[in-house]
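Exercise: predict the fold of this chain.
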Amino acid sequence: MEIMVFFSLLLLACSVSTNPIDADIENHNQQISNQQPSLQDIHAVLRELTASLTEQKVEIGNLRQEKQGTVSCQLGKKVKMNGAYGDTGPFPTQITLVFKRAVTNIGNAYNPHTGIFTAPVRGVYHFDWSLYGDGNLAAGGVLFRNGEHIFIAYEYPTSGYVSASNAASLLLQAGDQVSVRLYPNSRIHDSENHHTTFSGHLIFTM
């Protein structure tokens, strides 16, 4: 009888001594469980990050569009007293043509006071230029990259008015300058119909 009582007391003591430890473990597990985010919280954070990333991509695309450097302009000389736009040239040396009427000038990469397009970013650009002559002299215009002669648009008249045009795609570094220069001893004509034009745009960045 004494042995049985002692054994019961021993079991009771063991049971009492382990209960606080079990409680501590349970409390610790509960704290960890409370600290861990739920799957719903994780999904909510991911949705917010995705929305923010999408907004940033749109903003970057808009900034690139603003900086891409697109120009479309026309010679648009000052109107003479008779209301005609008139001729430019001839000159013994090449001069830079200043296309004063900028129809499109995204990013303001083209300077309508100097006639020079300055590449805002490194990339491949495409340029077109068209010239119109009055028929008494050749009409010619040369596309220049910095100081380098690239291509010429040139036409010598046999009778009547003449026109010439050309195009080129160029790899430009940021800061490179592109312009059209009047070919020596040639003459071009423009009127309110804007026959003589210069345009270019960024194809892609590199």
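Check your answer against the key: The mean pLDDT is 77.
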